[in-house]
Amino acid sequence: MRFLVRDRILGIGDDWWIEDEHGRKVFLVDGKAMRLRDTFELKDTEGRVLIDIHQKMFALRDTMLIEREGEPLARIRRKRLSLLRNHYRVSLVDGTELDVSGKILDREFAVEYDGELLAVISRRWLSVRDTYGVDVVREDADPALLIAVAVCVIHLAEKEGEED
């Protein structure tokens, strides 16, 4: 399954649609303005909130939290002791860890679980400007979670880039 994410509007307070490879709207990313922390909601086409994404307050390192139905689902942060700045760890509440690595700011990276590829995020396949694709490789993977992970990692990498 491939999803197309418009890149130019990744801002707090902005809303944008994520489409499938056939151009059908699948998810709405709702950027919440006027909040103390960066907050996004991933909604289905009916407006139901599937995933809530927000920045963890008072963390030593930038951390994004993902919740589903008000319950914690995952925590994302740059991997400690990584020589590469473009390596992030996704800690799921069940103890599972996903690794995200690649050229985050170039939108060329992968999400893996235990060495197995779950999703590839890339601009290479697309001719549409300011768009990247989230290609969910495994059929049993959760597309909403993987899209949320991509949005979080890009947001964290961009914030980190601003601080340099």
Brief write-up:
Helix content is 13%, strand content 47%.
Characterize the structure shown.
The chain is mainly β and 164 residues long. Helices cover 13% and strands 47% of the residues. It is built from 1 helix and 12 strands; from the N terminus they run ββββββββββββα. The protein has a 12-stranded antiparallel β-barrel. A hairpin with an 8-residue loop joins β7 (71-78) and β8 (87-92). The radius of gyration is 15 Å and the shape is globular. The protein starts with a strand and ends with a helix.
> Structural class of the helices, strands and pairings?
mainly beta
Helix share bin: 10-25%
Strand content: over 45%
- Find the count of extended strands (DSSP E, 2+ residues): 12
Note the run of SSEs as H and E. Answer: EEEEEEEEEEEEH
The CA-CA distance between the termini, in Å, is 35 Å
Number of helices: 1
Write down the Rg. 15 Å
Can you tell me the residue ranges where pLDDT is under 50 for at least 5 consecutive residues? none
Q: Helices and strands in order, then pairings?
A:
Layout: E1 2-6, E2 15-20, E3 25-32, E4 39-43, E5 49-55, E6 63-68, E7 71-78, E8 87-92, E9 97-103, E10 108-113, E11 116-122, E12 131-136, H1 143-163
Antiparallel strand pairs: 1-2, 1-12, 2-3, 3-4, 4-5, 5-6, 6-7, 7-8, 8-9, 9-10, 10-11, 11-12
